[in-house]
Amino acid sequence: MTRTLAAAACRLCGSEQASQLSAVLRDGMEREVAQRPYRCASCDFVFLHPAMTDGEATAFYEGAFRRRYHGEGYDLHAFHEGRRDEAHRRRCALRAEGLLSGRALEVGCATGAFLQAVAPEVASCRGVEPDTAQREFARSRGLRVASDLGELGSSAFDLVAAFHVLEHVSDPVGFLADLGDRLAPDGALVVEVPNVDDALLTLYPTPEAVRFAFHPAHQSYFSAATLEAAARRAGLLPRVVGLQRYGLGNHLHWLARREPGGQGWLHDVISAETERSFTGDLVTAMACDTLWMVARRAP
Ligand SMILES: [Zn+2]
After folding, report:
1. d(Cα 105, Cα 71) in Å, to the nearest integer?
2. Pairing with 23, which of 37, 210, 214, 263 sits 20 to 30 Å away (CA)?
3. Can you say whether the dihedral through the CA atoms of 49, 289, 157, 142 is positive or negative?
């Protein structure tokens, strides 16, 4: 049912008409926050409403979010090691696109796994990470990491990357414009986000997968169309492609067991050929789990 929200509810087009998609959030977080997911009736953008103020966001990340997801004194080294496979995949993708050579900046670099992976191949690399513990970990590995974009002065970059960051911000167009402002004239902005058109939410949705998809730390949920629209509104020329990070076993696990954690399930039954065919079909249908955007500044 479409209903009227508070003024300018859609952070992409400003429409006040939207439909609520779910009454629940991941891990019962609907008990911690007032936000619920909505789909804009005008542009299809999916977002949490009402938007958190900066103060509410800080209180959430330092309170309920930290208690639930990081605990006290979580193992940063294990966290860092767990991100190395994704860092390798992203380095290979960027190398294939010829984007690894000049000055690189990663916004939301966490402990620096990606920066470490690409450092030997770029002229220079910088990071931005607001989380103090993760930033200090990255610095302890010799990486140059600032706490926010403002600390970088007027530096421009040939590559600006933000992997699974854009979905966390409540003003995606403003954030993309800020990243675009950091690009050298021929520079490329590379953004990776989850795809809201994921088959687990569209082709064979279960209540459990839908609950899992909506997370209070994720303010924005993009399809290829809404990601491109956000980039254009930010003065960028985007190209968006799909990719599939989770395999057939994970999807069968969702359908059979109704819970996450099935990556690699049935690996002794599902052949590599079947896996490639399945994930390739999801990408072709754009029902894959991840979107990869390369954007340049509009002339
Ligand atoms: Zn809209």
Report:
1. 29
2. 263
3. positive
* DSSP one-letter code for 52: P
Separation of CA 19 and ligand 1 centre (Å): 11
Kindly give the interhelix angle for 272-284 and 248-257, rounded to the nearest 10 degrees: 80
Residues of the chain with pLDDT under 50: none
pLDDT of residue 161: 98
4 pairs with which residues across the strands?
17
Q: Compute, in angstroms, the gap from residue 5 CA to the centroid of ligand 1.
A: 12
Instruction: DSSP letter for 129, please.
Output: -
CB count in 10 Å sphere of residue 255:
13
Write out the two tokens for 122. 């770029």
Q: Which residues surround ligand 1, an ion (CB under 5 A)?
A: 10, 12-13, 15, 40, 42-43, 45
C-alpha 39 to ligand 1 mean position (Å): 8
Residue 24 CA to ligand 1 center (angstroms) comes to 22
Q: Say how many Å lie between the CA of residue 149 and the centre of ligand 1.
A: 27
3 C-alpha to ligand 1 centroid (Å): 13
Per-residue pLDDT, 6 = 63
User: Could you tell me which of 227, 259, 263, 267 has the C-alpha nearest to residue 244?
Assistant: 263
Ligand 1 centroid distance, CA of 161 (Å): 25
Residue 190: which of 296, 45, 42 has the closest Cα? 296
What contacts 189, CB < 8 A, 6 or more positions away? 160, 161, 162, 176, 179, 180, 183, 236, 293, 294, 295, 296
Instruction: Report the predicted TM-score, pTM, of the whole model to 2 decimal places.
Output: 0.94
Give the integer Cα–Cα distance in Å for 37 and 47.
5
Residue 195 has a pLDDT of 98
41 C-alpha vs ligand 1 centroid, how far in Å? 7
Distance separating alpha carbons of residues 164 and 167, to the nearest angstrom? 6
